[in-house]
Amino acid sequence: MSSAEGAGLSSTIAAIWTKHRPLMFERVATIEAALAAHEAGSLTSDARAAARRDAHKLAGSLGTFGLQQGTTLARQLELAFAADEYLEYASLEAAARGLRA
User: Fold this and answer.
1) Region of 95 on the Ramachandran plot (φ > 0 left; ψ -120 to 50 alpha; else beta)
2) Can you tell me whether residue 44 is helix, strand or coil?
3) Can you tell me the mean pLDDT for 10-16?
4) Number of H helices, E strands in the chain
5) pTM for this entry
6) 75 Cβ partners below 8 Å, 6+ apart?
7) Is the dihedral of CA 24, 96, 55, 13 positive or negative?
8) DSSP character for 94?
9) Rounded to whole angstroms, how far apart are CA atoms 101 and 96?
10) Which one, of 77, 74, 42, lies nearest residue 60 by Cα?
11) Could you report the per-residue pLDDT of 43-74, keeping only the tens digit for each?
C-alpha cells in the first residue's frame, strides 16, 4: 500500500468514526444506565440484556477503529452483564468511565 492509499484509508476510517461516534456514546449510555440501575437495586433483565448487547457491539466496533483499550473494557462489561451473578459495581463503573473517556 502506498502512502497516499494509507492516508486515504486513514481519512476514510476517521470519517466513519465521526459518523458513528454518537451511536458509540449511546451504547456507553445504555451501559451506564444499567450500572446505575444495578447500584439502585432496580436492574431489570431487559436492561441487563441491552447493556450486554451494547457492550458486545462496542467490543467489536472499537477494535475496528484501533481503540484496543475500549475493546478490552467493553468485553469485560459484556461478560459481566452476560454472567448470571452479582455485578461488581466499582470495577464495572470504572470500565464504563474508561469507555466514555
Assistant:
1) alpha
2) coil
3) 82
4) 4, 0
5) 0.84
6) 55, 59
7) positive
8) H
9) 9
10) 74
11) 999 999 999 999 999 999 998 888 899 999 99
